Amino acid sequence: MAVEVKYDGLYVNGKRIPVYSGTVHYWRLERNLWPELLDKVKGMGFQMLETYIPWSVHEIEQGKFDFGQINPNKDLDAFLSLGEKKGFYLLVRPGPHINAELTYFGYPRRVLLDPEIQARTADNTPAILPVPPKHFPIPSYASEKFYSEVGIWLDAVCPIIAGHIYPRGKIIAIQSDNEMSFFFRTSPYDLDYSPGAINLYHCFLNDKYGHINNLNQTYGTNYASFKEISAPRSFDARHKENLPFYLDWAEFKEYYIIYGLMRIASMFRKRGIESIPIYHNYPTAYPKPPFNLIETEKVLNIQGIDIYPHKEDYEFIKLGAEYTSVTSRMPFIPEFGSGVWFWYKSLLPEDEIFTTLTVFMHGIKAINYYMIVERERWMGSPVTRDNRIRESYYKFYQRLNEMLTEIDFASLRKKSDFLLLCNWDYERLEYISQIVSLPLQMFLRMFTELPPTGFPSDEKLGFEDVIPREYSRWWGTIYRSLCKSGYSFSLSDTQLPLEKLQEFPVVIVPTFEFMNVASQRKLMDYTEKGGTLVIGPRIPLWDEKMQKNLVLGEGIKVSRDLLESAVCDLGFKIRQAYILGAHSFVSAEGKTVAGFLEKGKGKIILLGFMFSEELEPRVVELLDRIAHSAGIKREIWCEDSELDLTYHESDQRRVIFLANPTAKTKQTRLKSIFSLKLVDAWTRVAVNSGAISLSPYTVKVLEAAK
Question: Does the domain formed by 418-633 have CATH 3.40.50.880?
Fold first, then answer.
């Protein structure tokens, strides 16, 4: 491949090209203004442009297209050539779905009105997307007729794109579709139940199990063939033995998205788009089922996230950036709001400045600002569609690009000693056990703080605990304690490959009574190779098929008696605690409630208890004990636990990001095992580490002498 994907950017002929780009929609701008508009983008320090290429805009009728012959604003070839002439590298997004606040999201109306192409709900009705300016039926990405229509579009547009891909031109990456997500209708039992989707579901089961007898053994059924299986339309499980059927449906929902992305990517390749990476973007900052980033990057080169942030969204932005920074091949935000669509809350300069620095702070390495030049149905870009400048926005991007170059940000790697994993088994369980339908979720979110995944079922299903509820609480307690602890940490999930796990001295993952056996074995390999693995509050006894399979818990004796409530020796409250037969790590009432076992070169620590309902500051002391056991020390931290700090290193530099995500002005000082001589990377002014002032919702970027 002529263009190579690495963690720190795209490499062209071995030269790193940091991905800091901006979106320009050529067809929405007067062609005579293109040169001046691109000069203004260049003036902000950008070396890369991105654009959608909309099917519905270029199509006149089926098989006939206008690429500038009728409307000069639609001359795609001329726009790409101009971008190359101005010295820009190019990213292109030809859909077929593009959204872009276009009516019908860039599809020709005739395609969406074809019944053979429409996705179906569980009630077998066409699935409608209720979005401004006009509702429309959703296409099914399992429909063969849909791909036939897409093929006609790609036959027309790919020859133009192919003429500009590197090394013939300067297109260095292409996107497969856009925000593929069941068109935001992600509830597990909402769609797609079209004939093509059900056939795809049966093919998925066949691929997974190989023979119907294997499925019958797992499900406890007696189907004669895969085609007899009806897809679930609600969560009706009553016992753990029922779960494989529903967990397979969750996996299929992920598979459906990946299948669509793979089909479109292969259509690009067959039409000559062969030497550049293919990427995609999720419409969320923090991927959860049905979005499977790790599996998607097995068929595409890069899977990114989208963020349209306000300054009050700091915690959500942080979660997404931290997760993506570890999990993705190149941590990329293909759409980061530079301005916002016209029916949403405005993004003010203070929002964009704070949140842009936030994503870099938490490990994002590549970013596309959407939109860097404004257009209709959009507001708040640094350059207007009639060629004016919004000075406060414009100067920010100028200085940002200068600073990223000055500190060589692309070469820096975020420091992390702890890795906190989401457990993908319980993420799927939470997803498939939702009991609130999509329309009701949409209504409730207008008036309540409904969780992103709705309300999971409170059924125990034969386990000791209501796993979705207790999983979220346990994970959340560890996460918030890490935030307050001063230790460096990152996030990912249990699908992460072993070689990435090994980059972290300590891995923490919630475990309950069932867990995918392959994930258990991988975590055991991590431990035996020298890692410190922290699990809890339970030992997995069953695998994903609900068959007995003890891997992580082997060698740990557990009494069936539980301590209902106690105060542990670290001084915080615990509940529902195991009494363990292992080397004591934490005790309560003279009994071991957290123990450890040596495994190969490493150790497993089992925290065999639930945390109390309220997060207690002394839980941080548990992390201190874990860190001491693993030989970890804080290196740079902040006195004020309401502030947030990360630091990034290369051979030449150490850069500290210090954020104030509160509405209060803060005075603080930094502590470090190093001697800190600091310079504010933004203002180039020396900073006293003992007296740092931060205004509300600000991030300071501090370069430390190394």
Answer: yes
* pLDDT mean for each 10 residues of the chain (706 residues): 94 96 98 98 98 98 97 98 98 97 96 98 95 93 98 98 97 98 93 98 98 98 98 95 98 98 98 96 94 98 95 95 98 96 86 96 98 95 97 96 97 97 97 68 43 70 94 95 95 98 98 97 97 96 94 81 92 93 92 94 96 82 96 93 95 95 96 90 94 96 90
Q: Give the pLDDT score at 444.
A: 43
Residues of the chain with CATH 3.20.20.80: 3-120+129-185+258-412
DSSP 233-289: SS----SGGGHHHHHHHHHHHHHHHHHHHHHHHHHHHHTT--SS-EEEEESSSS--T
Is residue 85 a contact partner of residue 44, using CB atoms and an 8 Å limit?
no
Round to whole Å and give the CA distance between 256 and 253: 5
Q: What pLDDT is attached to residue 262?
A: 98
φ/ψ region of 87 (left if φ > 0, alpha if ψ in -120 to 50, else beta) reads left
Query: Going by DSSP bridges, is the β-strand pair 610-611/636-638 parallel, antiparallel, or unpaired?
Result: unpaired
> What is the DSSP secondary-structure string of 378-443?
EE--SB-TTS-B-HHHHHHHHHHHHHHHHTTGGG-EE--SEEEEE-HHHHHHHHHTB-S-HHHHHH
In sequence order, what are the residues at sequence separation of 6 or more whose Cβ sits closer than 8 angstroms to the Cβ of residue 680? 686, 687, 700, 701, 702, 703
Q: How far apart are CA 417 and CA 82, in angstroms?
A: 46
Let me know: does 23 contact 370? Beta carbons within 8 Å: yes
Fold of the 637-704 domain: Immunoglobulin-like (2.60.40)
pLDDT for res 435: 67
* Residues contacting residue 271 through CB under 8 Å, at least 6 positions apart: 154, 155, 158, 159, 162
Residues of the chain with CATH 3.40.50.880: 418-633
Question: How do strand 670-672 and strand 678-680 relate by DSSP bridges?
Answer: unpaired
- Pairwise CA distance, residues 536 & 465, whole Å: 13
Return the closest-CA partner of residue 47 out of 69, 6, 15: 15
Nearest to 430 by CA among 410, 413, 453: 453
CATH superfamily name and code, 3-120+129-185+258-412: Glycosidases (3.20.20.80)
CB count in 10 Å sphere of residue 169: 17
pTM of the model: 0.95
Tell me whether the omega of the peptide bond preceding residue 537 falls within 30 degrees of 0, making it cis.
yes
